[in-house]
């Protein structure tokens, strides 16, 4: 359904005020489409310019990051941190280090994070950050110096009650450790709750590395159960081979599915006998090499350079690399191969055209802001543990994660049905997230 004239005018204004940020426009358009029928029924929800405020970041910080490589050469990168909404709690969301990062990337991610974080029910606002720094091929020392330089500015803007960054593409436990080390040095405080995704030895939570991938699989499992299916015996294709993809693969195997393909920025790995999680971990996380190296270690595997995995027949798919990585033609190919369900491990990996194909083919579709919320939810659990100076067991943390994911699934399903769109998880996630944030914004008054 097209946007009505009031919402269309608002969207036009957002595009005008935020030029050359197509991913941000895409994320806003999706939310506006979902919530428009709610606003038509309850126009008072839009009073006091609520939508304009919701779509305008509370703050955006852009800064220069200067660091030196191992040869002593100086480099200059750009750092970003966007605090989009603190209506529900401190800004919360990851940091992305990738050469493609712009302000628009960070704004789209921070906007998505508002609704995702609302769905977790944990009292966390939406934010995101990053840099156009390219970590590939950089030594440990270079990564450390970059993280230290980045935090030298970022520390002014974060804190356990203000803004709590974590990881995203290019930022894992190693980078969070270096960032936290510099934060601690500059502030003279061991404020563990200022960053999440920390290693266990510096106040991290059990199951945080696993949480996004595991959570996406729990969400997928719940979607399948609604249709009378289980994961047992299903063939799966995952894109990416980083944090989210690897742990999605582990949980899929644990629950009886077989992952036959994954990918990275150089191509697609296919193994009809099932990708080995331990070898994938060794290649990508330990050796930090590209995926083609996997085939040197496993004879049944094949690597296709520059290919994406979406033409490989599968029952379930988890795009878990990056935004807009799965387009209309990919969706048509997956639908032709009788895909049953797809959960977005990444943020906004499917284009609007691809989503339309899935919806028309009645394929169960779990949008990222619901399906990949397990990572930030477990970050919320890490903040709880830090505040209470306590440590939970892996089992307790994973059980809590699983409960949160099932609750998000239930919320999406019930909200979609209540709004005349049964089974539409996009409507469910956007409307439920919006209503939670809008209610808090109204309680807080005009701020
Ligand atoms: N980490 C988390 O807790 C959460 C992450 N997400 C989302 O999940 C996605 C993956 O994040 P994460 O696993 O943490 O990141 P990682 O850096 O660990 O892994 C990213 C993976 O995606 C591939 N990739 C990255 N950019 C591109 C690109 N432009 N084209 C093709 N492949 C690409 C990388 O390939 P290569 O190795 O060759 O670079 C790598 O395999 C992102 O969308 C992120 O926002 C969502 C919720 C939480
Ligand atoms: O754990 C976090 O705070 C961030 C997770 C994240 O960046 C995301 O959900 O996309």
Number of domains: 3
Category from helices, strands and their pairing: alpha/beta
Shape: globular
- CATH top level of the largest domain is Alpha Beta
* N/C terminus separation: 32 Å
Q: What is the count of helical runs?
A: 16
Q: Cα-atom Rg, whole angstroms?
A: 21 Å
Reported CATH architecture of the largest domain: 3-Layer(aba) Sandwich
- What is the mean predicted local confidence, pLDDT? 98
CATH topology of the largest domain, by name, is: Rossmann fold
Bound molecules: NADPH dihydro-nicotinamide-adenine-dinucleotide phosphate, 2-oxoglutaric acid
What is the helical fraction, as a range of percent? 40-55%
Which H/E pattern describes the elements?
HHHEEEHEHEHHEHEEHHEEHEHEHHHH
Low-pLDDT ranges:
none
Strand order of the largest sheet: 9-8-7-6-10-11-12
CATH superfamily of the largest domain: NAD(P)-binding Rossmann-like Domain
Report the biggest beta sheet as strand number plus sense, adding barrel if it closes: 7 strands, mixed
Record field, number of beta strands:
12
Q: How large is the share of residues in beta strands?
A: 15-25%
Organism: Streptomyces malaysiensis subsp. samsunensis
Pfam family, one: ELFV_dehydrog_N
Binding site for substrate: 92, 113, 116, 167, 379
Keywords: NAD, Nucleotide-binding, Oxidoreductase
């Amino acid at each position: 359904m097209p946007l009505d004239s009031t919402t269309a005018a608002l969207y036009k204004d957002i595009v005008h005020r935020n030029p050359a940020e197509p991913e941000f426009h895409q994320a806003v358009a999706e939310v506006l489409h979902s919530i428009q029928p709610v606003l038509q029924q309850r126009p008072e929800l839009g009073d006091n310019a609520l939508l304009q405020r919701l779509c305008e970041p509370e703050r955006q910080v852009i800064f220069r990051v200067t660091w030196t490589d191992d040869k002593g050469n100086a480099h200059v990168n750009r750092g970003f941190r966007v605090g989009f909404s603190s209506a529900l709690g401190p800004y919360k969301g990851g940091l992305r280090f990738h050469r493609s990062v712009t302000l628009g990337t960070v704004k789209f991610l921070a906007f998505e994070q508002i609704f995702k974080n609302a769905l977790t029910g944990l009292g966390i606002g939406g934010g995101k950050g990053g840099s156009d720094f390219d970590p590939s091929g950089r030594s440990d020392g270079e990564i450390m110096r970059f993280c230290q330089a980045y935090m030298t500015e970022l520390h002014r803007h974060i804190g356990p009650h203000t803004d709590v960054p974590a990881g995203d593409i290019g930022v894992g436990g190693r980078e969070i450790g270096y960032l936290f080390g510099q934060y601690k040095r500059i502030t003279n405080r061991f404020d563990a709750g200022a960053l999440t995704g920390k290693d266990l030895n510096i106040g991290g939570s059990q199951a945080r590395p696993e949480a996004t991938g595991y959570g996406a699989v729990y969400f997928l499992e719940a979607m399948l159960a609604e249709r009378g299916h289980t994961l047992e015996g299903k063939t799966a294709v995952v894109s990416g081979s980083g944090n989210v993809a690897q742990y999605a693969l582990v949980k899929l195997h644990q629950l009886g599915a077989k992952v036959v393909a994954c990918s990275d920025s150089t191509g697609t790995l296919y193994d009809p006998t099932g990708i080995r999680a331990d070898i994938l971990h060794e290649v990508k996380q330990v050796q930090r090499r590209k995926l083609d190296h996997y085939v040197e270690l496993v004879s049944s595997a094949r690597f296709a350079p520059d290919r994406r995995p979406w033409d490989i027949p599968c029952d379930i798919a988890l795009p878990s690399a990056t935004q807009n990585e799965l387009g209309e033609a990919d969706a048509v190919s997956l639908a032709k191969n009788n895909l049953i369900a797809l959960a977005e491990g990444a943020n906004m990996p499917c284009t609007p055209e691809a989503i339309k194909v899935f919806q028309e083919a009645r394929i169960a579709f779990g949008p990222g802001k619901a399906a990949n919320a397990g990572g930030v939810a477990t970050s919320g659990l890490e903040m709880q543990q830090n505040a209470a100076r306590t440590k939970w067991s892996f089992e307790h943390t994973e059980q809590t994660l699983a409960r949160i994911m099932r609750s998000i699934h239930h919320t999406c399903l019930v909200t979609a049905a209540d709004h005349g769109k049964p089974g539409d998880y996009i409507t469910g996630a956007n409307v439920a997230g919006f209503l939670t944030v809008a209610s808090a914004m109204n309680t807080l008054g005009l701020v």
